[in-house]
Amino acid sequence: xxxxxxxxxxxxxxxxxxxxxxxxxxxxxxxxxxxxxxxxxxxxxxxxxxxxxxxxxxxxxxxxxxxxxxxxxxxxxxxxxxxxxxxxxxxxxxxxxxxxxxxxxxxxxxxxxxxxxxxxxxxxxxxxxxxxxxxxxxxxxxxxxxxxxxxxxxxxxxxxxxxxxxxxxxxxxxxxxxxxxxxxxxxxxxxxxxxxx
Length: 197
Known about the structure:
The chain is mainly alpha-helical. It has one domain (10-194): Fumarate Reductase Cytochrome B subunit (Up-down Bundle), CATH 1.20.950.20. A two-stranded antiparallel sheet has the order 1-2. It has helices at 15-33, 38-61, 68-71, 75-86, 98-120, 130-161, 165-171; strands at 9-11, 173-175, 185-188, 191-194. The two termini are 30 Å apart. The model is unreliable at 182-197 (pLDDT under 50). Helix content is 61%, strand content 7%. The longest helix is centred in the C-terminal third of the chain and has 32 residues, at 130-161. It is built from seven helices and four strands; from the N terminus they run E-H-H-H-H-H-H-H-E-E-E.
């Protein structure tokens, strides 16, 4: 039987989501630091492709907050959240907030595109093709920008709501409530929970 979370803590990120997250961090860092070590660079790229493929499947069959249905929202919802964030009163979400959900989708697309074009550039048909290599490099640069924005968003949200989102991605748990509001509650049989939307 899995251990019960500490009092006041709610399980949010399942083990697969956490392994995926930190696995991608390690593999992307390896890929960027090993451009001159081709075999290691390629192996890291294949690892990213495998993890992204598994995450796409898990986005449909995984636990509540891992599913795309939980955090993929309409553009107007994302814009409304960003307006609230700029005003300093964006509400707290237990899972990904609308901007965070959009960032997840963008990062998955960029990871898939970067690793995919890297793989294509090693095939017989596209080996040495400047266009494919150029797209691969451009997507890699966009990926780094998106990662920077993701880290900035995590820091801003952590400060706004007074919670450590990095720790949450390590432990898989978040506080049921935080001192800083607003937050949107969803009362279920398990007690007060934050609304996923």
